[in-house]
Amino acid sequence: MAIIKSPTGARALRRSLLGLTLATGLLAQLPAAAQSPDFPSRPIRMVVPFGAGTSTDIVARVMAEAMGKSLGQTVIVENRAGAGGTIGTDFVARAPADGYTIVMGTVGTHAINKSLYRKLAYDPINDFAPISLVGQTPTLLVVSANSPYKTLKDLGAAAAKSPGVSFASAGSGTSGHLAGELLKSRLGGEMVHVPYKEGSMAVSDVMSGQVQFMFYHPTAVLPHIRAGKLRALGASSAQRSSAAPEVPTVAEQVGGDFDLVAWFMLYAPQATPAPALQKLRNSAAAALASADVRSKLSAQGLEKGAATDLTAFGKAEVAKWADLVQKSGAQVD
């Protein structure tokens, strides 16, 4: 073994060893995805912050299956429902930022909730890195097939008379609730909001005529429309829905800039390493380019999102829905 007698050589050796020790320590602190070029080396968890069978769950399962094929690993869908999607979303915000836990976010979890909840445990912009805008869809304004209202003009006339009309939603502060409030501001008259714990319960009461109308996702109401149990009077987007092009938009009928859409976006925790994030983005892009995936998403009423700068899109959506939340007076503690 060589003996180092030079003080200079000894100091150089100590510095080298110290540098190696520090580098090793820092490397150990990095997420596994940043260290390993073979990401993903194990299954990925895609959290759905709503229950099984919901539109978010269906969309997530379509994407999970396709992404799993391109990533070479199983993408497991895990439902963590509750509190308007905040429980599952917060879980992902606090998960290790290693690329192995992602969330199927929605307009509710990553835009509306920011201003709806007095104390939101996560920040939809600062706590997440967007992966891909999966798609967007307008909601459809529906009434019972037996309703006397054939157009929005009929609905507005009824709202102008006492006792007015009522509208249902899947809960206070949801996109359906806020769309109803915006319609009320356009048509005037008396429109009373009736929040439900579940959207399916609200749809049932609209079909029976207990509540006059509601805005809801095409996937949930189109089967009832085709079965002759519901009638669609308008779409909430600026352009007609590709799932129901025969239904005129609300803007066509009442004018103004009535343009509210629900959307789905995949997110990872903010500090996820760039290599892992890029692989997830590439996988999502490949899935969305697949004719099979596009067909399945179209069947759910989803249209391709036009946004390219997803961070800017998210910030604009937070601001837009905050204005509606404020005007509606909706608030959740």
Automatic annotation (TrEMBL):
CDD domains, sorted = PBP2_Bug27
* UniProt KW Signal keyword: yes
Q: Do the record's keywords include DNA repair?
A: no
List the InterPro entries. BUG, Bug_dom1
Q: Where is the signal peptide?
A: 1-34
Keywords, in A-Z order: Signal
**Similarity-based family:** Belongs to the UPF0065 (bug) family.
Q: What is this protein called?
A: LacI family transcriptional regulator
